[in-house]
Design goal:
It is built from 18 helices and eleven strands. It is an alpha+beta fold and 574 residues long. The chain folds into four domains: 170 residues, Acyl-CoA dehydrogenase/oxidase, N-terminal domain (Butyryl-Coa Dehydrogenase, subunit A, domain 1, Orthogonal Bundle), CATH 1.10.540; 107 residues, Butyryl-CoA Dehydrogenase, subunit A, domain 2 (Beta Barrel), CATH 2.40.110; 180 residues, Butyryl-CoA Dehydrogenase, subunit A, domain 3; 112 residues, Four Helix Bundle (Hemerythrin (Met), subunit A). The strands form three sheets. Strands 3, 4, 5, 6, 7, 8 and 9 form a seven-stranded mixed β-sheet that branches.
Length: 574
Amino acid sequence: MSNYFIDNKDLQFTLANLELEEVVSLRENNYKQAEDFDYAPENYADAKDNYKRVLELVGEISGERIAPRARVVDEEGPHFENNKVTYHPLTVKNLEELRNAEVFGVMLPRRYGGLNFPVTIYTMMTEMVSRADASLQNLFGLQDIAETICEFGTEEQKQKYLPRFASGEADGSMDLTEPDSGSDLQSVRLKATLDPKTNQWYLDGMKRFITNGCAKVHLVLARSEEGTSDGRGLSMFICEAGPELVVRRIEHKLGIHGVATAELQYNRVPAELCGQRKRGLIKYVMSLMNGARVGISAQALGIAEAAYREARKYAAERKQFKTAIEEFPPVFSMLASMKMEIMAARTLLYETTKMVDLRNSYNSIVEHGKAEEVTPEDKQKDKLYSKIAAVLTPMSKAFATEMSNRVCYQGIQIHGGTGYMKDFNAERFYRDARITNIYEGTTQLQHVAAIGGIMQRVLDPIMDELAGLPYHGKLKRLSTYVDEMRKKQQTAVQYVAEKKDSTYYDLVTKHLVEMETYIFVSYLMLRDALKDSERELFAERYILDAVPEFDRSYAVVMSGDVTLIDNYRELIDY
């Protein structure tokens, strides 16, 4: 039993040292909201204290109540009968306790019953909930649905739906995927038809792999324009559960057993257009996906944290040859690597969420502010942070989810044969982690999403700042390694750009994205070590591990060998 915020030194370090002054000031309208809401912060220190108290509350609920129930929820899961999903009583209890804590409208404005917290703080909550029960995160973590309605819906829709989300009375689902479309959302076929007499929209078709498809409120991507077959014919709709919306089945999955993943059939379901026609995929789903990438990164990080701690505990208790196995070099080196990777993913994730918060704030100013009050600087920052977030969110998801799979694999290895048994949590973490680098866009798609910004060198201004920090001693030596990797990366990017070969570009995309990640995370680890000398060892371990991996990818990129494609095909066809 523990508090998942108080027992996590690294998460506390992140909250204490992440510079959110600008984010919070923008979100609180320079703290003028305190004039209308007596519980709104009066300054940054007040806001930070409030964030900490709520994080401690969620940490307590996660560690002392949700986590002990997770194994039973995993074993028994939800019940499905007569097209109706019934969640496990312990899942219902978990949701009730989070609802009583008033954390179901974390990012929503206060006028709709929300807390008006930044994405960064909400992400910390989702990390802790995921550490306790990864499947519960797929219910708690769907708050981006309400955020989408808040950002793009009409005032009438906001008044109708947002207070229900904030109170926890309504839950949501994001209905995008179809049986034949998978990640190719441009090919979505579910049809939206407008009745010209009543001006009412109706939805007809199928959706598959819908997380929490039994929800009360659904955001649905549908084809609203006759004769179209690409993304320009898609719009976003809001609909509610009813007899016309049928849950046909729920999936039997490898992991994440506590939440229902459903196949849905729409039979002339009444719906409301959310935002403008024809912008469903181009604007609204892209906005949703940015939030989803951050959420799944946090889910993966929480699972990895749980797996590491379980392995650490087991290694301390398990004795072989009259010695705790944590004393054996092969074991303690694995544990050290696991912890280092978790810390690296965490520093990248929360640097990402800070940029997402800045993007959201400046985008809101530009899109919704009074025209005469929007400055050229506001517009410039909106563009800047939008570009940065577009690179960091896929980069973070790729890094965190692949890391989580490695850490959970190692967790079972440390447990040995017992880790393969359901008597221990290690195998559940391993199963739960596996979906994180698949849903909301596979790792391969995250590389595709990030590569454009890497080729354009979008992160260079941030890395210039990080490279210029006053490193000394060991950190100065380590920074020279990172500076050298960065020079090589710039050479590699220029080489690929000048080659002008689309096949080669696609072949080396993975390598370029991973190389950029090594560099950026290395700088973040160095920055953090400047603030806390105890973190120097983690920075050193990460960078010394990163350099040879970077160099291997660099060699592939600079080889210029397009015949690798043919070689791979020959291997497949053998």
